[in-house]
Specification:
- The structure is a single chain.
- A hairpin with a 2-residue loop joins strand 5 and strand 6.
- By secondary structure, the chain is an alpha+beta fold.
- The N terminus is likely disordered.
- Helix content is about 40%, strand content about 30%.
- Helix 1 packs across helix 6.
- The protein folds into 2 domains: about 220 residues, no CATH class; about 45 residues.
- The strands form 2 sheets. The protein has a 7-stranded mixed sheet with strand order 3-4-2-1-7-10-9. Strands 5, 6, 8, 11 and 12 form a 5-stranded antiparallel sheet that branches.
- Keywords: Membrane, Transmembrane, Transmembrane helix.
């Protein structure tokens, strides 16, 4: 038996798909992965529905339920109105290491989502780390990629998908999805577009694949310099001790010579 949350989610999906059938309606989404130098970070999902959607479905904000997201550990901001009459909602979740980041990305994607086989890894030392992101962006089945299991269980398929296909409407004109990544250090290689330390990809809606392979190298200069400094200080200390020992021996020898020298 379906829970009330599943029914609400499926009903909300049906409303969104219905209004997306209108040519002027659009939803833009951004999935962001922000990684800190110590391996912690945040996954953020932002969705913005334009004014046309709110005009067609004025009760949309009231239909959005986020209690289960909060219970699952997500932070929720919104839904809040945008300046141009649309609606914005943002959810985010922190992670403690690359393994947890990979798990959260999997939760965001679900079984049919466009962010497929995304894996974040880290190798090397704390002061010289190699970060690697692997995976691909691919939308299979049109609207089905954005429908969760609850909606499929209740509705049987992606609602209005046949109508959109029959009308020859471009899914990319109704749905926009970006994936952005901020990784520690310098980007060594990537398939995305770089801008001020952030790499981004536009998810294609035509079923084509986009590889998101990206790597960066993070060198902790402060720690490295501090490590070198500690070695130098230790070397100086050893030399100073050795020098003092030699000086002490010279003083003792001088005293012994004065003791053995007879007075005239």
């Amino acid at each position: 038996m379906l829970t009330s949350f599943k029914k609400q989610s499926a009903a909300l999906v049906a409303v969104l798909c219905a209004v997306l059938f209108l040519s002027s309606c659009r939803v833009d989404q951004t999935i962001s992965l922000e990684v800190n130098r110590n391996g912690t970070g945040t996954v953020t999902v932002t969705a913005i529905a334009n004014k046309a959607i709110l005009d067609a479905a004025p009760e949309l904000a009231a239909d959005i339920r986020t209690d289960d997201l909060v219970t699952a550990g997500w932070k929720v901001d919104g839904p809040t109105p945008t300046d141009d009459g649309g609606l914005r909602i943002e959810i985010s979740r922190d992670f403690k290491d690359p393994t947890e980041a990979t798990l959260i990305l999997g939760q965001v994607n679900g079984p049919r989502g466009p962010l497929q086989e995304a894996v974040l890894t880290r190798s090397g030392k704390d002061t010289n780390s190699l970060w690697t992101l692997a995976g691909r962006l691919e939308v299979n089945g049109g609207l089905q990629a954005f429908i969760d299991d609850a909606a499929f269980e209740l509705l049987g398929s992606a609602p209005y998908a046949a109508d959109i296909e029959e009308a020859g409407l471009d899914l990319g004109a109704a749905v926009g999805l970006n994936f952005t990544v901020s990784m520690p250090g310098e980007i060594e290689s990537t398939t995305g577009v770089q801008n001020n330390g952030t790499v981004s990809w536009l998810v294609p809606m035509d079923g084509s694949r986009v590889d998101i392979a990206t790597s960066s190298t993070n060198v902790d200069v402060v720690s490295s310099v501090a490590g070198v400094g500690r070695v130098l200080l230790l070397a100086i200390l050893v030399l100073w001790i050795a020098g003092m020992a030699v000086l002490l021996l010279l003083v003792l020898n001088a005293k012994q010579r004065r003791t053995r020298t007879p007075r005239i």
